[in-house]
What we know:
By secondary structure, this protein is α/β, with parallel strands linked by helices. Among the domains are: 51-200, Rossmann fold (3-Layer(aba) Sandwich); 454-553, ANL, C-terminal domain (GMP Synthetase, Chain A, domain 3, 2-Layer Sandwich), CATH 3.30.300.30. The chain is 31% helix and 23% strand. The chain has a 7-stranded mixed beta sheet with strand order 7-6-5-3-4-8-9, with helices on both faces. Helix 2 crosses helix 10 (259-272), helix 3 packs across helix 4 (84-95) and helix 12 crosses helix 13 (335-345). The radius of gyration is 23 Å and the shape is globular. The two termini are 35 Å apart.
Amino acid sequence: xxxxxxxxxxxxxxxxxxxxxxxxxxxxxxxxxxxxxxxxxxxxxxxxxxxxxxxxxxxxxxxxxxxxxxxxxxxxxxxxxxxxxxxxxxxxxxxxxxxxxxxxxxxxxxxxxxxxxxxxxxxxxxxxxxxxxxxxxxxxxxxxxxxxxxxxxxxxxxxxxxxxxxxxxxxxxxxxxxxxxxxxxxxxxxxxxxxxxxxxxxxxxxxxxxxxxxxxxxxxxxxxxxxxxxxxxxxxxxxxxxxxxxxxxxxxxxxxxxxxxxxxxxxxxxxxxxxxxxxxxxxxxxxxxxxxxxxxxxxxxxxxxxxxxxxxxxxxxxxxxxxxxxxxxxxxxxxxxxxxxxxxxxxxxxxxxxxxxxxxxxxxxxxxxxxxxxxxxxxxxxxxxxxxxxxxxxxxxxxxxxxxxxxxxxxxxxxxxxxxxxxxxxxxxxxxxxxxxxxxxxxxxxxxxxxxxxxxxxxxxxxxxxxxxxxxxxxxxxxxxxxxxxxxxxxxxxxxxxxxxxxxxxxxxxxxxxxxxxxxxxxxxxxxxxxxxxxxxxxxxxxxxxxxxxxxxx
Length: 554
């Protein structure tokens, strides 16, 4: 995309040339706290925390980390769902000069251990939840991790619900071991927050956000303070109502460990001084209740989330009158879902596009003006888009090509992966792996994917990783995994297996499916295993995903 298209036909409420001075994320938080003071920043299960309260917690986390020996540039991991601990730990680690590292609570022990080791994470913040702490303790024993900081959900609740939680949810709480490497969250924060904080260059890395490449190998995208602040400001500029923070109430049900929510829910709202109603996980009924009770004005989500809300029995009785705008990402938004959502709620639903390497967002349809279905809208301010020739990425494609982007939100590169940097950057342009077209007025369309990844409800799933697990079964001779269309999740992985007839009695398809899914993360699980006599092959004898897809899809 060239600047003249943006300046001539730009549909967003600010000029394409709009720029913001880069600042560090801790400076952004403290500035918002100075400006907003006692205004609510977070609500969680009935407890409200003001900007001033959160800023004090951020300073105490930073002080606790510094006094425990954490130095600038050290990696502090967050193995947390959406709880107030996450916000204080995220900004507190950065305020200490450390680099935050997001880890999904859905990770298996092996996945968590690998990324802890790959990132060099030395401190991991988690909860005493039975779904988290046992995994974290196993990783502590088998990696270079030095310390766990463990909080409790009860700490984030009002007094009466906290007592009830401790009493009624005992089976969901794991006991803390007597181990000098394990620190309670309350002990980390047991200080006055007075430690002198290091000066932070906005160009320094703030966050390692893991993604996957064409092979599915996890890579840590180095997102700087300037990257994250720029993307938060760009997204905020898309909202004509953004300068009214008292009317900015966002439902935070997307997971903060995902880059979409990290930018669109957390950083953008903190920058603007709005309020985030946090839910620890997505449950349609709870989300509808929170939306109505909190008079939410915005609801970023993925298509499967909007579908689940529409399908819930309480949807018809929910008051959506406060809701202004919903931003959909992570997977294609169907016209039928779009039409049904807007008709029922009266809120604007726009589709956007982004990736981990872009700090979250590249483009979106306008909040006001033409919402062009089937497109991902126009680029954010100062974001350029071009189409590269798929055979020679050093050349432009005339009409259809690989989408490449450049802008202030684009990552500084991959952590310790110069080889991957050389593959993904061409003359400073980030190759996305997606094929698209650009309308005459700058609206972008994604028409195909170069990468093999499967989009499952907003999560990226890589067939090669599932295949690697499946190949470990003694009765599997060959296998391939495809992403097949699914009305609810967008896509679902399905495995195609050639049994090894020499390995004795072959398991049934259902037995193999159960074996496989028990070794995968929740969003990676296959919907079926299909047993076959053979798989199509390439000329060199390699199982051909392309030919199998053509056969299966007709």
